[in-house]
Write a structure and sequence with these properties.
Structural class: alpha/beta
Oligomer: single chain
Number of strands: 5
Length: about 210
């Protein structure tokens, strides 16, 4: 997957790599007019691109216009901020997920580096989570914020958290299964009691 930086996530890159069925997150700086021209010129590329968006109201409206202009041919959107640890970003993700325009759209969201925040984004509507903050050789996040977190470290934390969640879900499933067995046993006993009462009533009538 080609990243959505303005130097790599371009229409030209999409036209090139889509020939090999590779995927591009197109950067968020193209105008709606440029998107419409690309959609008309290269419709064969659309299944292999994601339309990226920031979190402003203008970004939101443009994203809706792009998806509508593609008439269902673009199946992915990428909600991208340098640091996904904000309530505003989570609320924006929920807003996009709830919009009927994106009902059949796969949402990519990030960037985060911990399992807890990955879980939060998934619960808020993300289908794919971008892990890693500022690790790229040409990424400016590290220079602008003096902070970075390598993808491998982030993935390790996320995998640990997801493993913990899976264990908890497995434990819950076992408890539900045990409860179902007990309810089944109670139902059998009630059925047995009903049969005995029916037999007793029939015998008394005789």
């Amino acid at each position: 997957m080609v990243a959505n930086m303005d130097t790599t996530g371009t229409f030209e890159m999409a036209e090139f790599v889509s020939q090999s069925k590779m995927f591009v997150c197109v950067h968020k700086h193209y105008t709606i007019e440029q998107w419409k021209a690309f959609i008309a010129k290269s419709p064969q590329c659309l299944p292999y691109v994601a339309a990226s968006s920031g979190t402003s109201e203008a970004d939101y409206e443009k994203l809706k216009q792009v998806i509508s202009a593609a008439a269902g041919a673009i199946h992915f959107v990428c909600l991208d901020v340098a640091n996904g640890y904000s309530e505003h970003f989570v609320n924006y993700l929920r807003k996009v997920r709830a919009d009927p325009t994106f009902a059949k759209t796969t949402i990519i969201a990030g960037n985060v580096v911990t399992g807890e925040m990955t879980e939060e984004l998934i619960l808020s509507g993300a289908d794919i989570v971008k892990v890693g903050i500022g690790p790229g050789s040409v990424c400016t996040t590290r220079k602008e914020t003096v902070r970075a977190f390598h993808v491998a470290c982030g993935m390790s934390r996320v995998a640990c958290r997801m493993s913990h969640v899976a264990c908890r879900m497995s434990h819950i499933a076992c408890r539900i299964s045990h409860l179902a067995s007990r309810l089944s046993h109670v139902a059998c006993r009630m059925s047995h009691v009903a049969c005995r009462r029916a037999w007793a009533t029939r015998s008394s009538r005789r």
